[in-house]
Amino acid sequence: MDIDSLVARINELARKQKSTGLSEDELAERAKLREIYLNNIRSNFRQQLDSIEIVDDEKDQGRQGKLKH
């Protein structure tokens, strides 16, 4: 399931929850879809973090490759 259809289904279930409520099956589906969505977000964020290259002009100070706080 692509991200657009996943979000569309989550939103559809959210609207139904507000109007008439959800059945047990729909609650389980919503929880599963939300977990898939969150895992996708986490994975994308991890990929972004892994692709960051830190450049530090101050050499020989032991801070190369580490984030400054």
TrEMBL record:
Q: What is its main location?
A: cytoplasm
Q: Domain of life of the organism in this record?
A: Bacteria
Which keywords belong to this entry?
Cytoplasm
Give one Pfam family.
DUF896
Q: Matching InterPro entries, A to Z?
A: DUF896
Location(s), subcellular: Cytoplasm
What is the similarity comment for this entry? Answer: Belongs to the UPF0291 family.
What HAMAP family does the record tag this protein with? UPF0291 (MF_01103)
This chain's protein is named: UPF0291 protein J2T19_001064
